[in-house]
Amino acid sequence: MFDDWYRPNARLEFPKGGSGALIDALVRGLEKHGGRLELNAHVDEILVEGGRAAGVRLRDGSKVAAGRAVVSNATKWDTVPLLPADVAEESGLRPEADATGQCESFMHLHLGIDATGLPDDLEMHHIVVNDWEAGITAPQNLCLVSIPSVIDPTMAPEGKHVIHAYTPGNEPYSLWEGMDRKSPEYKALKEERAQVLWRAVEKAIPDVRSRVEIEMVGTPLTCERFLRRTRGTYGGTGWVGGDAGLGIPSPATKLEGLFCVGDSAFPGPGVPSVAAGGLICANTIGSVWQQLDGLKKVAV
Fold first, then answer.
1. Cross-strand pairs, 143
2. Is the pLDDT of residue 241 over 60?
């Protein structure tokens, strides 16, 4: 990534309108093809009937029946608790989850700042490696900073900038495990562990602290709570290879009708892993003719 990033004329892209614009586009595509998105619909259980995944039960007690399949885009670690213990074992999900390594979590710093007097050519993306000898996975060694409002003014009010700084998958969950989020100790650790992000932002905007109007800090416990991810993990670091010997497993499980496409089921963490797993899953569930028709629609 570093090599590609610093090639002449290389650019790291950012979606116009922010990540929300991507979500809106996906929802439009879903609804265009007859799908429906339900928010605040937490899944508490994957229903198993007659030896197959038959649907899900939501937190409010309501049930959603599955037509052809239940597709989980949660990690394997977070999908396993949704199944009866014996089914999780027999489906192969629990053994695969146990065999898959976990990336560490994140520290996040979200800022809204006064942009008065900042240069017009302020770069959108910045990367800080504090110690090249330590490696980019060392705790708090690698920091990324994005200031998307420098190229998309709709991301912030006039005269302001939004900033997101984060440590990508190198914040140890063990430092936070068992902490009370309302305790003074938690607040103190948040402030301490966020300093590396402040220093990274200061390399681009030295007086940023005096410009801050909005500040939000996220921790591994934040990721665990709001994203419902085991240990606030960023995804998998390893995976179990399939029988074909290709090293890339199928999204299908041994439980008929259950597919798992989260970022622990395909090599690598994060969105690329989920997107690739979802694509493979769609090709697995859909017929050849549906796939050919889809390819015609996207062909250039």
1. 128
2. no
